[in-house]
Amino acid sequence: MNQVLDILINGLALGSVYALVALGFVIIFKASGVMNFAQGSMLLFGGYLTAVLHEHIGFLAALAVGVLATAVLAGAVDRLLLRGLDPSQHHILTILTIGVDILIVTELARRIGGDLLSLGDPWGNEVVALGGVTVPVSRIACIVVSVLVIGAVFAAFRYSSWGLSLRAAAEDREAAALMGIPLSRIRTLAWCLAGALAALAALFLTAFPAPGLERTTGQIALKAFPAAILGGMTSPPGALVGSLLIGVTEALAAGYQSELSGFGRGLGDVAPYLVMITVLLIRPHGLLGTKEAVRV
Amino acid sequence: MFGFRARPGAPPPSRSGAPPGDGPADLRVDGLQVRYGRAVTALDDVSLTVPAGGVVALLGSNGAGKTTLLRAVSGTLRLYRGGVTAGTVTYGDRSLDGTDPVAAVRAGVVQVPEGRRVFGGMTVDENLRAGGLGRVRRDADGGNAAARERVYGLFPRLAERTGQRAGLLSGGEQQMLAIGRALMAWPRLLLLDEPSLGLAPLMVERIAEVVREIHAQGTSVLLVEQNAAMALALADHAYVLEVGRVGLSGPAEELSRSDEVGRLYLGEGVRAG
Ligand SMILES: Nc1ncnc2c1ncn2[C@@H]1O[C@H](COP(=O)(O)OP(=O)(O)O)[C@@H](O)[C@H]1O
Ligand SMILES: [Mg+2]
């Protein structure tokens, strides 16, 4: 029983980290029709900045700088690289993001080398007893902060002008343009938000009991990606459900392999893809994805 | 802009729905040439005027270039890899260069696109909110609430369906929503692209009434139609596009009596023959 609770908490924490990254995928995809394969490098970038800055300016300031700088970097990728290109050529833009990812990751990997960097979070390796299991405080912080941030993103999506603009543009670019909605600004903001979410994910991904930031940390995106796809790719709630599903599955797989070091190894690594393939076999449009709304 | 800021104490928009601030201005299209890619010249040397407060009909058969003209005015040509290659479009003292839809809406020129194009996955209310996003004085007195009141006044049927997904509305209701959505931006000039397309005669009649009412509330209208009978009944003035050029133009009444228009667009030749 205790082991189940332990695994569940692990899975939820892992799932909420995936959700931060997967939401970024979905937001960018909705805004620009591009699968942003550079999301992992954004995460690494934000994490790296926080890691090198926290000793000088303190944790919170370093985190703020990391999140903001990553938002700017993502916005810059949109403005400088993608803007001049034909927005309907989604596959070309998508491949371009792979190039961006390789560039950023290569440079950061060169800087990080074989090091394990701490992001300087205040939770350290503290644990609390919770219903008979000991839970790292960092995991609780991860779940609480993710819930708040994801809730805020959902609210913005539903109620803010930006969210409404984004949904309108995702449904019909031309009709949205005819309403006077500034499409390129909305799109850039979407990239910025996705970048910020990735940088935040870096924090929880590298906090205890994970060993810290490594040059391979950005590969987490490869697990958030199936989460976004199995959620339907255009549905933020779908991305959340998909992420939690994959997080818990992975924790289960890892747990029963008794390999609880960090965020799971071995079977846990393939679990996201097994879940994704299973879901897509049953529901080809993903859990909450829809076919295009049929117009009369 | 428009001197709105200078009059913070300006009264809220009137119940009649007249747009706040400036009234309509003249839309002038002069010597317009539009190309798609390098090969297709869709419009060539087209000139027309929609006077302030007027209703102008733009007629022409399929492929004549009617929609292209509206795209040039609204600034959406680029979405179709098209561009203005000669000539000018001005609204009042503003030049619209065919590449910036945001500028067109801010100038007060709002288009209802062909085929309605409502946001099917969003509710009626969200569609209307989206229509208000590009309005200049979004948060000023009245704002969305006043615009929505005007729309629901014109289309009581939409008021009964605020929470319904737009994709589930009937064709006529979607056309109402598309027009209502455009009105949320408080246009000074409304561009309508074949609003009667695919609608039952009764619904066409209803749409015509609404256009008349919107015009009476102080908005100019450029009405693109293949349904010449409906358009000529509404308009003061009409132009006929023929493969990218203005063929005929003149007062609507005169045109509706002309043999050519009768034969080509009112189907009289078919009936007579
Ligand atoms: N995206 C496009 N690319 C190339 N040619 C186009 C495009 N859109 C329209 N055209 C051409 O421009 C001409 C005018 O089309 P359009 O403005 O849609 O006419 P209408 O609205 O009067 O039916 C047609 O010959 C059409 O084939
Ligand atoms: Mg047309």
From TrEMBL, chain A:
Ranges annotated as spanning the membrane: 12-37, 57-81, 93-113, 133-157, 188-208
Keyword Oxidoreductase: no
Keyword list, A-Z: Amino-acid transport, Cell membrane, Membrane, Transmembrane, Transmembrane helix, Transport
GO cellular component: plasma membrane
Gene Ontology molecular function, alphabetical: transmembrane transporter activity
Main location: membrane
Keyword Ligase applies: no
Subcellular location field: Cell membrane
Single Gene Ontology BP annotation: amino acid transport
Pfam families tied to this protein: BPD_transp_2
Membrane topology: Multi-pass membrane protein
PANTHER family: ABC TRANSPORTER PERMEASE PROTEIN, BRANCHED-CHAIN AMINO ACID TRANSPORT SYSTEM PERMEASE PROTEIN LIVH
Similarity comment text for this entry: Belongs to the binding-protein-dependent transport system permease family. LivHM subfamily.
Protein name according to UniProt: Branched-chain amino acid ABC transporter permease
UniProt organism field: Streptomyces chumphonensis
Lineage, uppermost ranks: Bacteria, Bacillati, Actinomycetota, Actinomycetes, Kitasatosporales
From TrEMBL, chain B:
GO molecular function: ATP binding; ATP hydrolysis activity; branched-chain amino acid transmembrane transporter activity
Keywords: Amino-acid transport, ATP-binding, Nucleotide-binding, Transport
GO biological processes: L-amino acid transport
Coiled-coil region(s): none
Region (Disordered): 1-25
Lineage top rank: taxon: Bacteria
Domain ABC transporter: 27-268
UniProt biased composition (Low complexity): 15-25
Transport among keywords: yes
Keyword field contains ATP-binding: yes
The family this protein is said to belong to: Belongs to the ABC transporter superfamily.
Name of the protein described by the UniProt record: ABC transporter ATP-binding protein
Source organism (scientific name): Streptomyces chumphonensis
Lineage: Bacteria, Bacillati, Actinomycetota, Actinomycetes, Kitasatosporales
